[in-house]
Each structure stands twice: as structure tokens, then as C-alpha cells.
Amino acid sequence: MTVQDVAVDLEARRCWRAGVEVTLARKEFDLLAVLIQRAGEIVTRAELMEQVWQTTFWTSSKTIDVHLGWVRRKLGDDPRRPRLITTVRGRGLRFEQGPPAGESTAARQLEAPH
Hints:
Blueprint: E1 2-3, E2 6-9, E3 14-17, E4 20-22, H1 26-37, H2 45-53, H3 63-75, E5 85-88, E6 92-95, H4 105-111
Antiparallel strand pairs: 1-2, 2-3, 3-4, 5-6
Helix pairs in contact: 1-2, 1-3
Protein name: DNA-binding response OmpR family regulator
DNA-binding region: 1-97
Organism: Nocardioides massiliensis
């Protein structure tokens, strides 16, 4: 399954960004898998806790944030201006199906590292 330039093989538990393999820890992969399978949808924190950590209680409200930070860093997604996984304040997280609305291809190319 591929969304934007992130490809995930759920059976082999492997991930690539722009054709380059990205090594993820078990929970990082599980978090990404839940989000990418529901790309374009908001996934609540409660759903993530249940599906990734198999728990209905919050052992730490920062668990998701810490793992999300690691996933964003490994995928090269700027946490200040994320293009892959966005936070919908008060609702949850969403793996975006495309670049944020209003962002032009030219603007993305200007920001791309050379």
C-alpha cells in the first residue's frame, strides 16, 4: 500500500519513503500501519491506544506523541509543518492522502534539500 511517497508492506512489516527503506521499531510500524490504512481519515487517540498498544486506558498521555515523533523523524516529516501525518487538534491524527491544501508543487520544490 502506498500513500504519497510512503509505501508499506503490512505482511513483511517493511516501509519505504521515496523508494528508500525506513527501519521502524515494532510499535512505530504498528502506529504507521494503522494511520496509513485509514489515510484521509481522522484516527482518534483512543483508537490508536486500542489498536497499537492493545489497551483502553492511558498509561501515559505522551506515549502516542513520543512514538509519532520518532515516526515523523524517520520518515523525514517536519513536525512543525507535517505533510504526511497531521494532528487534528482535539480529534486525533490523520495520514494525509496528498500535500496540505493550498501548497503548490513549486513551494515544495523550493523547500526540498539540494
